[in-house]
TrEMBL record, chain A:
Coiled-coil intervals: none
Taxonomic superkingdom: Bacteria
InterPro entries, alphabetized: CheY-like_superfamily, CusR-like, OmpR/PhoB-type_DNA-bd, Sig_transdc_resp-reg_receiver, WalR-like, WH-like_DNA-bd_sf
Feature: DNA-binding region: 123-221
Keyword Lyase: no
CDD domains recorded: REC_OmpR_CusR-like, trans_reg_C
Residue(s) carrying 4-aspartylphosphate: 51
Domain OmpR/PhoB-type residue range list: 123-221
Record-given protein name: Heavy metal response regulator transcription factor
Gene3D superfamilies per record: 3.40.50.2300, 6.10.250.690, Winged helix-like DNA-binding domain superfamily/Winged helix DNA-binding domain (1.10.10.10)
Keywords: DNA-binding, Phosphoprotein, Transcription, Transcription regulation, Two-component regulatory system
Pfam families attached to this UniProt entry: Response_reg (PF00072), Trans_reg_C (PF00486)
UniProtKB/TrEMBL annotation, chain B:
Subcellular location: Cell inner membrane
Domain Histidine kinase residue range list: 242-454
TM regions (residue ranges): 12-32, 157-180
InterPro entries from the UniProt entry: CztS_silS_copS, HAMP_dom, HATPase_C_sf, HATPase_dom, His_kinase_dom, HisK_dim/P_dom, HisK_dim/P_sf, Sig_transdc_His_kin-like_C
Cited function: Member of a two-component regulatory system.
GO molecular function per UniProt: protein histidine kinase activity
Catalyzed chemical reaction(s): ATP + protein L-histidine = ADP + protein N-phospho-L-histidine
Domain HAMP: 181-234
Top-level class of the enzyme under EC nomenclature: transferase
EC number(s) per entry: 2.7.13.3
Protein name stated in the entry: Sensor protein
Domain of life according to the entry: Bacteria
Length: 228, 454
């Protein structure tokens, strides 16, 4: 998977480059609008992360130039939380946008959504260690025992299981499980995870649902539990 | 060029008095001319009557020389007056020779005028026939008087009038300038006072009690604007202070914790722990900044852009579903009453309702019921969340929707709640053309908002 990052802020560009590389992406970085436009047009990328405020040529003109020739998916990064910028970005052919400050996990989630082309062929049966999930029948078992989950608990488990090994932020979980796309002061996700854990992990070994402090939750098999 | 009010008033006074005086002058000039003319005519007729007996009493040509000397005598003392006796008979004539031209203008009517070669102004004349007697045929007696004094009087009067008009206009201008200056003195005082206002002394107002009614109205409006400005300014200042305060705690944590961590050799686990902790604080900062940006959007007057027509009760139900686990944990039930259709931006609306419910559940005792009611009102839809429990004191109610305002100050700094929840409710209401409200008595608290509907 090849990503072009067009970003002039050095620290932002550096952490994005490192983070995405570690996520398994091949990353190119352009430090201004002109380089960005050149690279976006000359080379093939699976997705482009494009900052709006750039020296040389701004993000909109890069997008404009790109869309005249290519349909590479683009995520715009806007520093100002202005509807104008977002509407303008989407109208001119951006596929998604993120408002700074954004979380890195959020960016990864959006990138995956844009590049995960054929989710239709997804398996209906998921298996992690002794956990078995039937997405169609909406049922789950551990060690052969049926887990008695409510609808929301199952939705949470399914969301985590589909992205096994990926850290899901609370915001992403709220969006996937409750279709809520705003920040709120509630600790709904914590409560839901606690409930799921009591049914999924408390009676069984190994522990599958892990908390990553400050980031979110991940469903995976670990050598030993690192839960805080 | 821009004229001052005093200058303008002075100019207007000048124009007004000039026009008045000019009209008066023209009228007086006309009147005087007519009066002077009448006076001349009267004098001519009187003189004619005076000289007529000279001729009447005489009927012999031989005696005409005596008449001539009598006329000469009578006229020598007054060069203004001339007399002519016109007759076909050369013997009965008197006065200087007149050309036919001169005669015509004098004789065609009883009043006429004769232009004499040695005089600048024409003579005004009156002539009439004196009937024949004895040897003397009927003769025409013509009396002329010099119109120079009349013309001169009229001229000097005209000059006087023009001079008076100009001087009067200039005087009015000067006086007007002075009067305007005096009249505008309160304005100057007012502007002096206004100049003395500065951001540091925002609570100062213009003195209105000593002002004229016209100005006090202006000053009142100005004071009103000042009051609004002061409120906005104070809100901004308080807001900046609040933001600084809210950001200070997580920033302090971040710096301190990072310094402590870096001051010794640490194990990977310890380093990880520090980074996780930093991340929590950073996430909190991000959430505050994002919420502040959101509130700023509403402050700028932005309206909800992506509205769709939906059932309000269904949207409320969605928010209730989201918080279901929270309600179960807290042991409270939620009931939704009423419904209405409205055009709203669903994510904003759900966010507002979620914040209200979150607030309610924090204050409701275990086993309580939270009631969300949706009420269709004229022009607006009212969404209120009511919870039982200890009420909120009156002094807190009005400030409940202020940013970072916390009823229970000990809750400040809680990790969950950064005190923007209800401010966001208000922002959402504003973006939907609505308002917020809060009521509380001993047993229950109702907090809610309205959204405008067409």
């Amino acid at each position: 998977m090849k990503v072009l990052i067009v970003e002039d802020e050095p620290k932002t560009a550096d952490y994005l480059e490192r983070g995405l590389r570690e996520q398994g992406y091949v990353v190119d970085v352009a430090r201004d609008g002109l380089d960005g436009k050149h690279m976006a047009l000359e080379y093939e990328y699976d997705v482009i992360v494009l900052d709006v405020m750039l020296p040389g040529t701004d993000g909109f003109s890069v997008l404009h130039a790109l869309r005249e020739r290519k349909q590479t998916p683009v995520i715009m990064l806007t520093a100002r939380d202005r509807v104008d910028d977002r509407v303008r970005g989407l109208r001119e052919g951006a596929d998604d946008y993120l408002v700074k400050p954004f979380s890195f996990l959020e960016l990864v989630a959006r990138l995956q959504a844009l590049t995960r082309r054929s989710r239709g062929q997804e398996a209906m049966q998921l298996r992690i260690a002794d956990l078995q999930i039937d997405l169609l029948a909406r049922k789950a078992w551990r060690n052969g025992q049926r887990l008695d989950l409510t609808a929301k608990e199952f939705a949470l488990l399914a969301a985590l299981a589909r992205r096994k090994g990926e850290i899901l932020s609370k915001t992403t979980i709220a969006e996937l499980v409750w279709d809520v796309n705003f920040d709120s002061d509630t600790n709904v996700v914590e409560v839901a995870v606690k409930r799921l854990r009591s049914k999924l992990d408390d009676p069984f070994r190994p522990t599958l649902l892990h908390t990553v402090r400050g980031m979110g939750y991940v469903l995976e098999v670990r050598e030993q539990s690192e839960d805080a | 060029m821009k004229l001052s009010i005093s200058q303008r008033l002075a100019a207007m006074f000048a124009v007004a008095s000039f026009v008045t005086l000019a009209v008066l002058g023209v009228a007086m000039h006309g009147l005087l001319k007519r009066e002077l003319g009448r006076h001349q005519d009267n004098e001519l007729q009187a003189r004619w009557q005076m000289y007529r007996p000279f001729i009447m009493r005489n009927d012999e040509a031989a005696y005409w020389g005596h008449i001539r000397s009598k006329f000469d005598n009578s006229l020598s003392e007054n060069s203004r007056v001339r007399v002519w006796v016109l007759s076909d008979d050369r013997r009965f004539r008197y006065g200087s020779e007149l050309t036919a031209e001169q005669l015509r203008s004098a004789v065609t009517a009883s009043f006429g005028q004769v232009r004499l070669p040695d005089q600048q102004e024409p003579f005004k004349t009156y002539s009439a026939m004196v009937e024949a007697r004895g040897e003397r045929p009927a003769v025409r007696l013509m009396v002329g008087i010099d119109s120079t004094p009349f013309v001169e009087t009229l001229q000097s009067f005209t000059v006087g009038l023009v001079a008076l008009t100009i001087v009067g206009a200039l005087g009015a201008a000067a006086l007007g300038y002075y009067i305007a200056g005096v009249g505008l003195r309160p304005v100057e005082r007012l502007s002096g006072e206004a100049q003395a206002l500065s951001p540091g002394r925002l609570s100062r107002r213009l003195q209105t009690d000593t002002l004229a009614p016209e100005l006090s109205k202006l000053a009142d409006s100005f004071n009103g604007a000042l009051a609004r400005l002061e409120a906005a300014y104070q809100q901004l200042e308080a807001f900046n202070a609040d933001v600084a305060h809210e950001l200070r705690t997580p920033l302090g944590n971040l710096i301190g914790q990072t310094q402590v961590t870096l001051s010794r050799e640490r194990s990977v686990t310890e380093l990880k722990e520090a980074l996780h902790s930093n991340l929590e604080d950073l996430e909190r900062l991000r959430a505050i900044v994002n919420d502040m940006l959101f509130l700023a959007r509403a402050d700028r007057g932005e309206r909800a852009p992506n509205r769709i027509e939906v059932s309000i009760a269904q949207e409320v139900a969605h928010a209730v579903e989201y918080l279901e686990f929270i309600f179960e944990e807290a042991g409270v039930r939620v009931r939704i009453e009423g419904d209405a259709q409205a055009s709203i931006e669903t994510s904003l609306f759900r966010r507002a309702v979620t914040n209200l419910l979150q607030n309610a559940v924090q204050h409701a005792p275990r086993g309580a019921e939270i009631v969300v009611s949706v009420l269709q009102q004229p022009g607006a839809i009212r969404v209120s969340v009511r919870n039982t429990g200890s009420g909120i004191a009156r002094e807190h109610l009005s400030r409940l929707f202020d940013r970072f305002y916390r009823v229970d100050s000990s809750r400040s700094g809680s990790r969950e709640n950064h005190g923007l929840g209800l401010a966001i409710v208000r922002a959402v209401a504003t973006m939907h053309g609505g308002t917020v409200f809060a009521e509380s008595d001993d047993g229950a608290t109702t907090i809610g908002f309205t959204v405008a509907c067409a």
